[in-house]
Design goal:
The chain is mainly alpha-helical. The chain contains two helices and two strands; from the N terminus they run αββα. Strand 1 and strand 2 form a beta hairpin. The radius of gyration is 17 Å and the shape is elongated.
Length: about 70
Protein backbone atom coordinates (compact mmCIF):
# COMPACT_ATOMS: atom_id res chain seq x y z
CA UNK A 1 0.00 0.00 0.00
CA UNK A 2 2.89 2.35 0.68
CA UNK A 3 4.04 2.13 -2.96
CA UNK A 4 0.54 2.91 -4.20
CA UNK A 5 0.40 6.05 -2.05
CA UNK A 6 3.78 7.26 -3.34
CA UNK A 7 2.70 6.56 -6.91
CA UNK A 8 -0.52 8.54 -6.49
CA UNK A 9 1.37 11.48 -4.97
CA UNK A 10 3.87 11.42 -7.85
CA UNK A 11 1.04 11.21 -10.40
CA UNK A 12 -0.69 14.18 -8.77
CA UNK A 13 2.54 16.21 -8.89
CA UNK A 14 2.98 15.37 -12.58
CA UNK A 15 -0.60 16.44 -13.35
CA UNK A 16 -0.10 19.73 -11.47
CA UNK A 17 3.17 20.37 -13.32
CA UNK A 18 1.52 19.63 -16.67
CA UNK A 19 -1.30 22.04 -15.84
CA UNK A 20 1.17 24.78 -15.00
CA UNK A 21 3.04 24.17 -18.26
CA UNK A 22 -0.21 24.48 -20.24
CA UNK A 23 -1.03 27.73 -18.47
CA UNK A 24 2.42 29.15 -19.26
CA UNK A 25 2.41 27.97 -22.89
CA UNK A 26 -0.53 30.26 -23.57
CA UNK A 27 1.74 33.20 -22.81
CA UNK A 28 4.51 32.12 -25.20
CA UNK A 29 3.68 33.94 -28.46
CA UNK A 30 5.74 31.79 -30.83
CA UNK A 31 4.17 28.42 -29.95
CA UNK A 32 2.01 27.47 -32.95
CA UNK A 33 3.39 30.24 -35.17
CA UNK A 34 6.74 28.81 -36.25
CA UNK A 35 7.60 28.15 -39.90
CA UNK A 36 6.34 24.65 -40.66
CA UNK A 37 3.26 24.89 -38.44
CA UNK A 38 0.16 24.14 -40.50
CA UNK A 39 -2.74 26.62 -40.36
CA UNK A 40 -5.79 26.23 -42.61
CA UNK A 41 -8.38 29.01 -42.51
CA UNK A 42 -11.77 28.71 -44.19
CA UNK A 43 -14.97 30.73 -43.79
CA UNK A 44 -16.12 29.37 -40.42
CA UNK A 45 -13.28 26.96 -39.70
CA UNK A 46 -9.67 27.19 -38.52
CA UNK A 47 -7.42 24.12 -38.33
CA UNK A 48 -4.06 24.50 -36.60
CA UNK A 49 -1.47 21.72 -36.48
CA UNK A 50 1.73 22.98 -34.79
CA UNK A 51 4.07 20.44 -36.38
CA UNK A 52 7.32 22.38 -35.93
CA UNK A 53 6.37 23.47 -32.41
CA UNK A 54 5.69 19.84 -31.44
CA UNK A 55 9.03 18.73 -32.85
CA UNK A 56 10.84 21.51 -30.98
CA UNK A 57 9.14 20.72 -27.67
CA UNK A 58 9.84 17.01 -28.17
CA UNK A 59 13.53 17.63 -28.85
CA UNK A 60 13.86 19.88 -25.79
CA UNK A 61 12.05 17.39 -23.57
CA UNK A 62 14.23 14.55 -24.87
CA UNK A 63 17.36 16.56 -24.13
CA UNK A 64 16.22 17.38 -20.59
CA UNK A 65 15.31 13.75 -19.88
CA UNK A 66 18.63 12.57 -21.33
CA UNK A 67 20.54 14.97 -19.10
CA UNK A 68 18.53 13.92 -16.03
CA UNK A 69 19.20 10.25 -16.73
CA UNK A 70 22.99 10.72 -16.79
Amino acid sequence: MMDLGKTLILLGAVIIAAGMVFLLLGRVPWIGRLPGDIVIRRDDFVFVFPLTSCLLVSALLSLVLYLLRR
